[in-house]
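TA notes, week 10

Several of you asked for a full example with nothing omitted. So below is the full record: structure tokens for the whole chain, then the designed sequence directly under it. When grading your own attempts, check the secondary structure regions first.
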């Protein structure tokens, strides 16, 4: 549904070039939610602008729903954009218009009959949980309600694709979860394809099927959420399954272990302790459910003088990912 191939965007600042996107390629299948995560300055906002051709890429291609946007002429580009809904960090509603009029605005632009536009806007407000708020003005709405109006407006043109640029970063945690649940529900009900740009890993954990890490204009890690989470050596895994800081107790070997799937609920550590007659000390841990799969990330310490080799081998034989603390996973 969304295909980006070797996308580059270079800006000129005086006599020097700034590379904002450096060969970005990704595919988002129909009906899925893909997250792009990265720190400020990674190129996330530039990517959104290039996906809608609000900012023309320097090179590379963007295809959405089979339409090649990067080479489309004006009329074709406008038609393709109407199949893309945009949700922003701030709802950007028109203060002088009611919720109903804000949602109807995109339909007015394409000259839909007024009665038809208002009827559809009312249906969309009901869809996003705002039935009864049709005549409310933005100043009378909470932040979450404004975002719901923005989502309804994004759906007005019956899009195939939703591009969400930091859709919850201005909201409190409770409202954030409510909006994320709404986006996920709409994705399933309307068979949308969704690309979420965010710096919040909570958003990725909550709704995404797959994820890409953008750094310095490049995608450095990507894949299905379960796959990247299960890779103990990846940056994404360590961010999805963070461990609190904990100091070792003595000089025993410290290991990081990652359980996923069936191993997350199996008593593997206690079995290892019995097998090798060792007291294993858990220094830190986190447990998460990602894409309906359980993950457990622990930092454990063996007793001083214990041989770590047989323990590591046994854990790996049980399907557990293991690394020596401070080293790459294997």
């Amino acid at each position: 549904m969304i295909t980006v191939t070797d996308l580059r965007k270079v800006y000129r600042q005086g006599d020097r070039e700034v590379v904002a996107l450096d060969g970005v390629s990704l595919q988002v299948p129909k009906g899925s939610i893909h997250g792009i995560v990265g720190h400020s300055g990674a190129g996330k906002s530039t990517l959104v602008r290039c996906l809608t051709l609000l900012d023309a890429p320097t090179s590379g291609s963007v295809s959405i729903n089979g339409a090649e946007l990067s080479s489309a002429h004006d009329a074709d580009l406008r038609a393709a954009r109407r199949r893309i809904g945009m949700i922003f960090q701030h709802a950007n509603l028109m203060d002088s218009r009611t919720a109903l009029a804000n949602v109807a605005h995109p339909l007015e632009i394409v000259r839909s009959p007024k009665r038809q536009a208002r009827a559809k806007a009312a249906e969309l407000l009901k869809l996003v949980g705002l039935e009864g708020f049709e005549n409310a003005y933005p100043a009378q709405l909470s932040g979450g309600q404004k975002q719901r109006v923005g989502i309804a407006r994004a759906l007005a043109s019956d899009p195939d694709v939703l591009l969400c640029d930091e859709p919850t970063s201005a909201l409190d945690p409770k409202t954030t979860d409510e909006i994320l649940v709404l986006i996920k529900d709409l994705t399933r009900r309307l068979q949308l394809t969704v690309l979420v740009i965010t710096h919040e890993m909570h958003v990725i954990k909550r709704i995404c099927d797959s994820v890409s890490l953008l750094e310095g204009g490049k995608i450095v890690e990507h894949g299905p959420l379960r796959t990247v989470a299960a890779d103990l050596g990846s940056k994404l895994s360590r961010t999805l399954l963070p461990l609190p800081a904990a100091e070792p107790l003595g000089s025993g070997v410290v290991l990081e272990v990652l359980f996923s799937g069936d191993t997350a609920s199996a008593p593997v550590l206690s079995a290892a302790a019995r097998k090798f007659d060792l007291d294993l000390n858990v220094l830190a841990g986190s447990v998460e459910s990602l894409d309906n799969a359980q993950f457990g990330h622990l930092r454990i310490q063996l007793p001083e003088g214990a041989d770590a080799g047989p323990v590591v081998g046994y854990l790996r034989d049980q399907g557990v990912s293991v690394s020596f603390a401070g080293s790459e996973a294997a």
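The mean pLDDT is 91. Use that as a sanity check on your answer.
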